[in-house]
Design brief:
Radius of gyration: 21 Å
Low-confidence stretches: none
Amino acid sequence: MIIYVETNFLMSIAKGQDSQAQLLQNPPSSLRIVVPSICFVESLTTLEKEEKYNLDFLRNLDIQINQAERDNSSNARLLLSHLEQSRTSFLQRSNEVKERFDVAFNRLINTSEMITLSKDIFQLTLNRAMFEKHIIDRIILECIIFHAGLHPNENKVFLSSNSKEFGRREVLEILRDREIQYFNKIQNFLGWLQFQSN
């Protein structure tokens, strides 16, 4: 069985949002994890953006800490304590996210099959009017559709928590035409998989 995953899969592992995602990092041999190569690039840029947001947040937090340090009132002392504790916890969580990302990224690169972008995939992307404001999602979808067309006799599943884009009716119809089951939660997929094996 082919399981297609995209950027959100990797980011959900890094952020600790889906404990079930860990189960698919070491899949049984009957499951092939397939990832469009652009998802690895997108996940790196997403992590980079989040690190910039984190730095902005820390700068603002440092300004508030500095302001609270100058204020001798009891409320300011209490606030200072909370802000400093928040800063420490925030940095610890940021480090955990980065560590989980690194582990998941390396494991996924080593255990998954990559769909390499090609001229044909780009042409399909240009020909389909969809996701006008989300070109990366359009490329991801075309990669999956293209790959699925090369494997018509295999069971195929697409896992993505991005149901806002990939859960749209027109996308689900395209996936169904390629006989790709869509799941927006790994837990639902695992339940379905268990039902299939019974």
